[in-house]
Automatic annotation (TrEMBL):
Pfam families: Pyridoxal_deC. This is 2,4-diaminobutyrate decarboxylase. One of its GO terms (cellular component) is cytoplasm. Keywords: Decarboxylase, Lyase, Pyridoxal phosphate. It comes from the Bacteria. InterPro entries: PyrdxlP-dep_de-COase, PyrdxlP-dep_Trfase, PyrdxlP-dep_Trfase_major, PyrdxlP-dep_Trfase_small. Its cofactor is pyridoxal 5'-phosphate.
């Protein structure tokens, strides 16, 4: 006789269908989490508690990270608040304006709960059913917003890194097929692949180089083009480079145009680059991780003109679309190009399924198991509405222009981009009669002290070897008054640190 295997009687009901207790644990856990978060967020204007990295690490190292018998959710939540949440970077603070790191929208946060609870996996239709079609609808809408042609298509990604990689991967494989009739997926890289070149501006994102390395071309394949006075790829320079490459018998197969550079938010001349790419039979990838959001702008839509002529586009939603990390998309003007990454696995996405109307999105992705991140964008667009979305983005761009003008007017400050195209402002405290070297040091100290005293988080960067401060004004809740106060504080700190030097 076969003995029936008895299910263990769990001390804690961790699953929804476990019993009534499962549902109760769920609702109670959420309530506790909600209260814990509200305690942190409510009225908290500071971007950071100010604790030093060593102190934080020492505290976290004291935590026990497992429990043999399990602990109550309340006690774990209390520990979580004390050791983790209270010393987190507060992205919702109007003075947390360092990186391209956004406050999250409430409907998107609520959607995260649905995404995780439903836990659909976007690789095959039989793990995602409705979710597959929702993602497809949103991709269609995005292609439309970007102005791409009818045969365009796309897929959600983990972000700009993955999208840029995909753009260059498809560009490489399409080129090898066209020029040498080589199927890279099957045969690997042809001998002449050593000659392949990618062109992008010196301000392009570092993931262009990383992708080149991962694609077997090496970073040597990336030719960086000088930028003009507005930090945009120089058309004269790229024409000059293309001529030079031809003379050297090298093969430029992709141009990466940046729509919103990481430091300055500058936008390369997209329409002119599209023309050059077309003329030379080169793939144009537009890295619009940051600037892609301008497709929703009312006032600045013209700034991304030319994007519609791209062969592929990167858009990030965890930047100017205010989505929780991670959320991005890769769009391609001709869906046929996805064939370069297709692989049919018997257990997952056999070709015969297509006759049944099953759509397996793994065919368009370099990921297999993948989150239903499209849902949070959908809920955000619906609840917030396109009008408000556009107004929020426009406000931040106007704010950056006003902030740059204000800082430029202040004695003892220097702005690098007096006319920001998006919403980043790069500047530094630059008092008269202080050496360049000491000015660098003062700016570093100021940036550190603003974070330590919890007043503001500004990023620091370098330009022509000098240290600069950067405000990335993504948050529509930030005001010009906030920025004015930060400037006053910077001046006080700068004078104090300078005096300590004398
Ligand atoms: C943020 C960013 C990336 C990288 O995207 P992730 O989402 O961080 O992977 C690439 N390019 C640009 C221009 C970016 O701003």
């Amino acid at each position: 006789m076969i003995e029936t295997l008895k299910r263990a009687d769990f001390a804690y009901a961790p699953f929804f269908l476990n019993n009534e207790e499962g549902i109760r644990n769920y609702t109670q856990s959420l309530k506790i989490m909600e209260n814990t978060l509200i305690h942190f967020l409510d009225g908290n204007n500071s971007p950071y508690s100010g604790k030093k990295p060593h102190d934080l690490e020492a505290r976290i190292n004291e935590l026990s990270i497992t429990s043999q018998k399990g602990e109550t959710f309340e006690s774990v939540a209390a520990e979580l608040a004390e050791f983790v949440i209270n010393d987190s970077m507060n992205v919702h603070s109007p003075t947390c304006i360092g990186h391209l790191h956004c406050p999250t929208l409430i409907p998107a946060v609520a959607a995260e709960l649905i995404i995780s609870t439903l836990n659909q996996s976007m690789d095959s239709w039989d793990q995602s059913s409705t979710a597959t079609f929702v993602e497809e609808r949103i991709i269609d809408w995005l292609c439309n917003q970007a102005g791409l042609p009818e045969q365009a298509d796309g897929v959600f990604t983990s972000g700009g890194t993955q999208s840029n990689y995909m753009g260059l991967l498809l560009a490489r494989d399409a080129y090898c097929k066209r020029i040498w009739n080589v199927d890279v997926q099957q045969q690997g890289l042809p001998a002449d692949s050593k000659k392949l070149r990618i062109l992008c501006s010196e301000a392009a994102h570092f993931t262009v180089r990383k992708s080149a390395a991962q694609l077997g071309l090496g970073e040597q394949a990336v030719i960086t083009i000088k930028t003009d006075s507005k930090h945009r790829l120089s058309i004269d320079e790229i024409n000059h480079q293309l001529k030079k490459l031809k003379e050297q018998d090298l093969l430029p197969f992709a141009i990466v145009a940046t729509c919103g550079t990481t430091d300055f938010g500058s936008i390369d001349p997209l329409a002119e680059l599209a023309e050059i790419a077309k003329l030379n039979g080169i793939w144009l990838h537009v890295d619009a991780a940051y600037g892609g959001a301008m497709m929703l702008s009312h006032d600045f839509k013209a700034s991304i003109k030319g994007m519609e002529a791209a062969d592929s586009i990167t858009v990030d939603f965890h930047k100017l679309f205010y989505q929780p990390i991670s959320c991005g998309a890769f769009l391609v003007s001709d869906r046929d190009h996805f064939k370069y990454i297709q692989h049919h696995a018997d257990y997952l996405n056999p070709e015969e399924d297509e006759a049944e109307g099953m759509v397996h999105l793994v065919n368009k992705s370099i990921q297999t198991t993948r989150r239903f991140d499209a849902l949070k964008l959908w809920l955000s667009l619906k609840v917030v509405g396109l009008d408000t979305f556009g107004e929020m983005i426009d406000y931040t761009c106007h704010l950056a222009r006003d902030a740059a003008a204000m800082i430029d007017d202040e004695a003892g400050f220097r702005v690098l981009n007096r006319h920001p195209e998006l919403n980043a402002v790069v500047f530094r405290y630059d008092p008269e009669g202080v050496s360049a070297q000491l000015t660098d040091q003062l700016n570093k100290q100021i940036q550190q002290e603003l974070l330590n005293n919890g007043r503001a988080f500004l990023a620091k960067t370098r330009f022509n070897g000098e240290v600069y401060l950067k405000m990335t004004l993504l948050n529509p809740m930030t005001t010009l008054e906030d920025i004015k106060e930060i400037l006053d504080e910077i001046r006080i700190l700068g004078e104090m640190f300078n005096m300590m030097e004398e």
